[in-house]
Structure formats: structure tokens, C-alpha cells
Here is the input.
Amino acid sequence: MKRRTFQTAVAAACLAAGFAASAPALAQTGGWPNKPVRLVVPFPAGGSTDVVARFIAQGLSDKFGQSFVVDNRGGAGGNIGTDAVAKAAPDGYTIGLSTSGPLVNNKFLYKNMPFDSDKDLAPIALVCEIPLVIASTPKVSAKNLKEFIQQAKAKPDAYTVGQPGNGTIGHLALEQLSMVTNTKLSTVAYRGDTPLMTDLLGANIQGLSAPITAFIPNLASGKLNGLAVTSATRFPGLPNIPTAKEQGIDMVATVWFAVVGPAGTPPEVIKALNTEINNIVSSTYGKAKLQTYGAVVNVGAPDLLRKMINEDSKKWQKVISTANVKLD
Here is the structure.
């Protein structure tokens, strides 16, 4: 009996400590959250957005003492899941981890959008961004993107560059590259990264443009040549690959991840989430974890996310309009 009493006392003390740790956060948010929070991911389970969301959900669950439950709602390029967030009650119990596709690009790609990202969603926190890589087969003699473009201009019929699907950021980055270098590139759309990588490894195409995540092992081993990353700075996981800007090519293209809520989400909830998400991903462990997904931490206040949405909207509207890219 004494042993059981002691164990019960220890368990009670641990439970009390957990409540004490989360009590300040609860007090600052009027008792939120007092039930599980749904974290909608507008893409299928297993992808980069999903794994980042699950990492963040675990950190938020630990901090607030309530479950943050990932709910995958894929379809329509991320529009279905993001729309579910936009139309949810603005009470802090439905938030979403979306990307620059649904939040920026899709409104220029789709004729009919089910939500207005500027009016129907509340920015909560930037999380991270994944740079794109422009890579080639080792059979191409170009050592960098500048040389690749020079060769493609000289022999346009000999160079085909693949991308993971029409309207994807890999596709749009190639259109941007064509615009800023005044180069007519021969491109082909694939259904995702796997067939794209297979054809480049087999030298059936000469280059590719896609988010770097799936290609890190083959770039690191030398099976593919990294000609450039299209982020503002080099990717820490493969620091030997120069940026496009370093080579005099004025382009930046990344896919970024952000947490949003329905418009009208209480400001105190937004503030609490922003603070804790920043803490989770900016920690030493968080930075290392995200880098394994090919992501680089990019955090800040909600206003920074709104600014990024506005700036990227101007950039990609011009590219999409000039290239006449449509998905419906």
C-alpha cells in the first residue's frame, strides 16, 4: 500500500508540473487551448509539408499540454485543405500548415479559387523554406548554371530540362529562368520528383528544376551535378552548390511553409502560436531536423509572412502571366 501511495504521489506531482509549465501560456490566451487543435495539411501524408507539420505539432503539443492533430486534406494543388482552414471557425482550434503554392501561386494559376488568401486567412508564422536546385546529368560538361545556359543557347535542341509538374514551383522557376536569361528552354513536365530523377539519372534529359529535398543524396554522391540553388543564400546541407545570383542570374525561387488560421483568429492565440513555432524551429534541434528535409528555417512575426505573401504575389503573377501558365 505504501509503495502504491508513493507511486500515486509521484504521478500526481509530474502531472501538476506539466500543468504548471503550460499554465502561463494558458493564462495569456484566455484558457486556449482547452481541447485538441486541428492542424490541417493541404497535401497527402508522407510529403515534406506533412513531415514538417508533424514535427511542429509535436512541439506545440508538448508546450501547450493539448494535442495538435495533423489532418491531411490533399487535392487541387493544396486548395482543398487550405480552404478548409479559411472556412473554419476562427476560434484557434483549426490552423493549417500551408505553402507558397496555395497561399500565393494558385490564385494566378486557377480561374476559380475557393478562398481569398489575402482576406480569408490570418498569417500566424513563417516556418521554413526549401530552395530549388537546378541540376544536370554528369554527361553535361557545364560546371554551373551560367555555363549550362550558354550551352543551351548555343545548341537549344540538345538540351531538355525537366520539372515535376505544370504549375509547380519547379516549372515556374524554369519560366523565371527563361525570362531573366532571355533563353528559350526546351522543358518537359513529369508527374512528381521520382520519374523526373529517374530520367535525369538515365541521361534521358539534360537537366531538372525542382525543390532540393528528394535530390540531396544524388547531389551529395555526385550522381547529379548541382548547377545552382535558387535561394538567396547557399543551402547549408550542400554548401558547394552556388546560388543563381552568385552567377549573375537574377532569380530567387523557393517553396516556403507557413502556419495560417481563419481570418478573425484571436490575436492572443496568433501571438502565442507565433512565439512557440519560432522557438521550435529556431532551436538547434529544430534547425538540424528541418535541414534533413532540405529546409532552411525562416521565421518572424505574422507581419513578415504577410509581407512575403505580397512580394511573392507580385513576382509570380508576372511570371505566370508572361508564360501563360494555367491549371484550369
Q: What stands out?
A: Residues 2-129+255-323 form a domain with the D-Maltodextrin-Binding Protein; domain 2 fold (CATH 3.40.190.150).
